[in-house]
Amino acid sequence: MLDLTFEPPKPKLIAGAKADWELVIGLEVHAQVASKAKLFSGASTAFGAEPNSNVAFVDAAMPGMLPVINEVCVAQAVRTGLGLKAAINLKSAFDRKNYFYPDLPQGYQISQLYHPIVGEGEVLVDMAPGVARLVRIERIHIEQDAGKSIHDMDPTMSFVDLNRTGVALMEIVSRPDIRGPEEAAAYVGKLRQIMRYLGTCDGNMQNGNLRADVNVSVCEPGAYEKYRETGDHSVLGTRCEIKNMNSMRFIQQAIEYEARRQIAIVEDGGQVVQETRLYDPDKGETRSMRSKEEAHDYRYFPCPDLLPLEIEQGWVDDIKASLPELPDEKKARFVNDFGLTEYDASVLTAEVDSAAYFEVVAAGRDGKMAANWVINELFGRLKKDDREITDSPVRPEQLGKIIDLIASDAISGKIAKDLFEVVYVEGGDPEEIVEARGMKQVTDTGEIEKVVDEIIAANPAQVEKAQQNPKLAGWFVGQVMKATGGKANPKAVNEIVAGKLGG
Prior knowledge:
This protein is an alpha+beta fold.
């Protein structure tokens, strides 16, 4: 159990012309399963291949070809469900969702409607230290992706790339528990983080490996609470679905626009029509795509080519036993074991590689100092150079040695920053660099006292001012540090200066 307490954020309130309105949002997130082969064929899932080169006969719907389920994809769905604290259904089944589209050669999509593999779960969405939204997961089902239609290569023809056809997707369906645009983006980000920790989806939104359909409605203040009490969705207003969002920023913009569009309709006495819409980022608006289909419009029926999927509890238990430490648990441990603030722990656990890097640096050292160096110095420099933590020129062992040199008073904080720059640019062992370049801190009080005496003797007027106002002693400290090239021990300098001026 986590021991980090939190309270839910206040819902987003939008002022209409006549009244205030609240937002209610639910998301259907489509996450591409991390697997080498597709859901029902052995064709590769590699991104960026030549068009129509990763296509098996079953993907192309050749006559007589039958799907064969990929066990890895099933295991990844179970793993994701366990990571979201969800119920795993030992028996599930596949259905055919019938619709015609040029990049779906079968004329139907194999999905799960009536019996999904994963049931109810939950996600804690962090909004700020001590503030988080608990979002309920309704279900996760497995389905095959469609291909890609390309319309901008020829003025009179469209082209179809079937490489994505048959790639395994996990559709993660939330309850309408999200109450604002920022929460929606944070929710998608949290799902992405968890799946990256689990290794079940790489979360690459640019490649289309993580996409979201966003359902938005507006309601009067207090209606959501009524829904939670009664389960009556009708009090939440009519929802519209915004399809295929693959950007956190666009998700927020689309929700904001759609909410205001619906408020204007309702306040003018009209009725919001349930429909599917697209977001145009260039115009910053949503536009109608088609009327919202219901399950019966797709003529769902059990897939005759696949038997019901039955898995054993022992297999699920084995997967559960192999789960890594997940972000919420890791964050709580960083707070408890290293004495970090919740904010710093959140930054360090945002990516699994960053968390692993920090743990090596912090091992046997002051956790707060390690966090400060990783977040401020290393992350800041990597961001400046547009590099990932996995591509860091400074290994965690090297950064740990720099911190050790500070802790032992071998170098000052200022020299440490210079040393970090040398290691970042040139590499090398920090201890050897300090020795070779004479960067060691001056701790000999006699040597420091000699420099202090020289500066005091050369600045009698400044001495008189400092004796009248002790705060001005800092000037002498700065002069000593300057004279010693920043190598003098700052603590010793302060004590000697204070003693001389006080006398």
